[in-house]
Design a protein that fits this description.
- By secondary structure, the chain is an all-alpha fold.
- It folds into three domains: 196 residues, Growth Hormone, Chain: A, CATH 1.20.1250.20; 47 residues; 203 residues, MFS general substrate transporter like domains (Growth Hormone, Chain: A).
- The N and C termini lie close together (7 Å).
- It is a multi-pass membrane protein.
C-alpha cells in the first residue's frame, strides 16, 4: 500500500467508525419493522377489507429484501457509500410517510412497505461493505459480529412485542423507522464519499442478475413452473453476458475464484434451515406441549436475546481463536442442538428451549467468520459484490430450506416414527426434522474441513 493510499484508508477508517453506529440503528429499526408487520399483516388486511391478500404485506417486502441485499452490495463497488446512504434514507422516509398517510388503502400500504424495506436495507448493506473495506481485521470482525447481534436483538423485540403491537393503531408502525431522520446529518458528514474511479456500472448485467434473483425469490413464495423456466432463461442470459461482455460487473476472475465459491457453498449448507428454526419451535410448543403462543413468544425472545449476546462475542472470538475454530465451534453447537432436540423431544419445553439457544446460537455465531473469510478471499474492489452474493445466497438457501421443511413436516412418512423410541405423530415429525438438520450441519462441517485453507486467507491492508 502506497503512502497516499494508506492516508486515504485511515481517513475513511476514521469516518467509518463514526458512521457505523448510526447505520446500525437505522438497520435495526428496519429489521424490527419486518417482524412487527409480519405479526399484524392479517389485522391490516382485515381492517382494509383485503383479508385474502393480507399475506402480500409479508411476502412481497421479503422478496424485495432478498433482491436489494444483492443489488446494494454490488452497487457499493461503483457508487460511494455516502450517495447510497442518502438514497436509502430518502426511500425509507418516503415509504414511512406515504404509508402512514395512505393507511386507508391496502395497495398504498403494500407499496409503501416495499419502499420502506428497500430503503432501510441500504443501511445494512452499506454497513457491511464499509466494515470490510475500510476497517482493519480486528475491527472488521467485531463489527460483523455486532451487525448479526443487532439483527437478533431486533428479532427478539419483534417476537416479544407481538401481543403488544396489535393493541395500537397499526398505521403508527410506519413512523417508527422515520425516527432515523435524526441521524441524517451525522451520516452525511461521516460516510465516505469514495467510489471506483473510472468504473462504469454494468447496468445490463446487474439488471439480468437482479431479475434472476427476483424470480428465484418469488418462486419460493409463489411456486410455479413458469417462474422456474423464466429463472433458467435469465440465468443463461446472465452467463452469456459474463462471457461476452467487455466489462461485466461479475467478471471471470470473480466467478472462477475457487476460494470464494467454496465459502459460498459452505455458507449455503450452514444456513439452509435458518428459517425453519422458529416454525419448528412453534410446532413443538403448540402441538406437542399445548402451550399458548404468548409463552412461546417469550421463550423465543429469550433464545434470540442469548443469540444476540453470542453474535456480539463472535468478533472477539474470531480475533482470539481464528475463523476456522470459531466456525467449528458454531457447527458443533448446531449439531449438538439439533441432535439433542431430536433425542429429548419429549423431555419438556424448558429442555428444548435450552437446546434452541444452542442451535440458534450456532447459526448466529457462524455469520461473522464466514463473511470475514469471504471478504479476504476477494480483492477489496470486489467486496461489495461479494457481500451482495453472500446476502443473496443466505436468503435463497434459507428459502429453499423452509420449502423443504414445510414439505417434510406435511409428509405422512415422517410421522410414522423416529429413532431412539420416539413414537408417531408430530413428535416423530419434529424429531426426524431435527435429525435431517443435524445431517446437513455435519455435511457442512466436513466440507469446511475439506476447504479449510480457503477460510484462513488474510488480505494485506
Amino acid at each position: 500500500m502506497t503512502e497516499e493510499a494508506a492516508v486515504e484508508f485511515e481517513e475513511n477508517r476514521a469516518k467509518t467508525k463514526k458512521a457505523l453506529p448510526a447505520l446500525l440503528v437505522v438497520f435495526m429499526l428496519g429489521a424490527l419493522m419486518i417482524q412487527a408487520f409480519n405479526l399484524v399483516f392479517q389485522n391490516i388486511g382485515d381492517a382494509l377489507g383485503m383479508s385474502s391478500s393480507a399475506s402480500l404485506i409479508s411476502t412481497l417486502p421479503g422478496i424485495v429484501l432478498g433482491v436489494v441485499c444483492m443489488l446494494y452490495g454490488t452497487l457499493c463497488d461503483f457508487i460511494s457509500p455516502k450517495r447510497m446512504t442518502i438514497f436509502g434514507m430518502a426511500a425509507l422516509l418516503a415509504g414511512s410517510l406515504v404509508g402512514f398517510l395512505g393507511s386507508f388503502n391496502f395497495w398504498i400500504v403494500l407499496v409503501s412497505r416495499m419502499v420502506q424495506v428497500a430503503g432501510a436495507q441500504v443501511a445494512g448493506s452499506v454497513f457491511l461493505v464499509m466494515a470490510v473495506k475500510y476497517l482493519n481485521d480486528k475491527e472488521k470482525a467485531f463489527y460483523l459480529g455486532l451487525y448479526n447481534a443487532v439483527y437478533c436483538v431486533a428479532a427478539a423485540i419483534g417476537v416479544l412485542a407481538g401481543g403488544i403491537i396489535s393493541s395500537f393503531d397499526w398505521k403508527y408502525l410506519f413512523l417508527v423507522p422515520a425516527l432515523s431522520v435524526v441521524f441524517v446529518p451525522l451520516l452525511i458528514r461521516n460516510t465516505p464519499d469514495v467510489g471506483e474511479r473510472g468504473e462504469r456500472i454494468d447496468g445490463i448485467g446487474i439488471a439480468l442478475f437482479a431479475v434472476f434473483a427476483g424470480l428465484i425469490a418469488v418462486y419460493f413464495s409463489f411456486p410455479g413452473f413458469g417462474l422456474i423456466v423464466a429463472a433458467v432463461l435469465f440465468a443463461i442470459l446472465f452467463v452469456l453476458w459474463i462471457w461476452k461482455s467487455k466489462n461485466p460487473f461479475l467478471g471471470r476472475s470473480f466467478v472462477t475464484n475457487g476460494a470464494f465459491m467454496s465459502i459460498l457453498l459452505v455458507q449455503f449448507l450452514f444456513v439452509f434451515f435458518n428459517y425453519a428454526c422458529v416454525p419448528i419451535y412453534n410446532v413443538i410448543g403448540t402441538q406437542i406441549y399445548r402451550m399458548p403462543l404468548t409463552v412461546i413468544s417469550m421463550c423465543l425472545a429469550l433464545v434470540y436475546a442469548i443469540s444476540a449476546v453470542l453474535g456480539s462475542l463472535s468478533g472477539p472470538l474470531i480475533n482470539r481463536m481464528g475463523r476456522m475454530r470459531t466456525i467449528i465451534v458454531s457447527a458443533l453447537m448446531m449439531i449438538v442442538g439439533f441432535a439433542g432436540s431430536a433425542l429429548l423431544i419429549g423431555k419438556g419445553f424448558a429442555v428444548l428451549t435450552v437446546l434452541a439457544c444452542v442451535f440458534v446460537g450456532g447459526t448466529t455465531l457462524i455469520y461473522a467468520p464466514i463473511y470475514d473469510a469471504a471478504s479476504d478471499a476477494l480483492p477489496v474492489e470486489e467486496n461489495g459484490r461479494g457481500i451482495g452474493i453472500l446476502d443473496l445466497m443466505l436468503n435463497t438457501s434459507a428459502s429453499i430450506g423452509i420449502a423443504v421443511y414445510s414439505s417434510l413436516m406435511a409428509s405422512a412418512s415422517t410421522a410414522r416414527g423416529s429413532l431412539f423410541g420416539v413414537g408417531s405423530g408430530v413428535s416423530a415429525q419434529a424429531a426426524n426434522m431435527f435429525w435431517i438438520m443435524c445431517g446437513i450441519a455435519i455435511v457442512a462441517l466436513i466440507l469446511l474441513l475439506v476447504f479449510r485453507r480457503n477460510f484462513t486467507i488474510t488480505r494485506e491492508r
